[in-house]
Design goal:
By secondary structure, this protein is mainly beta. Helices cover 0% and strands 61% of the residues. A hairpin with a 6-residue loop joins strand 8 and strand 9.
Length: 153
């Protein structure tokens, strides 16, 4: 297994093939505010905040550039249902089957329209998305149709 770390606001990255004992420098395809990375489906994927920049790699060493479908503060990537999902602060999220080609999808609107997407998780066959205010959340079995739920705090 190759471990990967990314440096914010640069093209610097590093990888380790010996469980973190030693690290080797590598280069990302663009200077960006790299905010999240993930390994799934034999692909490393990274997203950057404040734009449409993303990157992917088959080995964690050589990175190629790709583009997210909208400009926003991308902050997290998860993998579920055999797809990558990237979220930012907006109501749109990005979905990809391969980590290279991304499609825009929309979350439902929160009752409080000032609420931003805070987090998303996948487990037991469903996505759960929560906002940064209140107790309103949404779950989905397919990443397209969302059902409102109340998150009891």
């Amino acid at each position: 297994m190759t471990w990967v770390v990314l440096k914010e606001d640069s093209t610097d990255a590093a990888y380790s093939t010996d469980d973190g004992a030693t690290w080797t420098s590598s280069t990302l395809p663009a200077t960006a505010t790299w905010s999240a990375s993930l390994y799934a489906k034999d692909t490393y994927v990274a997203v950057a905040s404040g734009g449409t920049q993303a990157a992917y790699s088959a080995d964690g060493v050589t990175w190629l550039s790709t583009t997210l479908p909208s400009s926003q503060n991308w902050k997290k990537i998860i993998f579920g249902r055999n797809e990558f999902v990237a979220i930012g602060d907006g109501q749109a999220f990005a979905q990809s089957l391969d980590g290279i080609t991304w499609n825009s999808k929309a979350f439902p609107t929160f009752t409080d329209t000032n609420t931003k997407v805070k987090d998303i998780a996948y487990g037991n066959g469903r996505y759960l998305m929560i906002g940064d205010k209140g107790t309103q959340g949404f779950y989905s079995l397919d990443g397209t149709n969302w059902v409102e739920t109340v998150i009891d705090t």
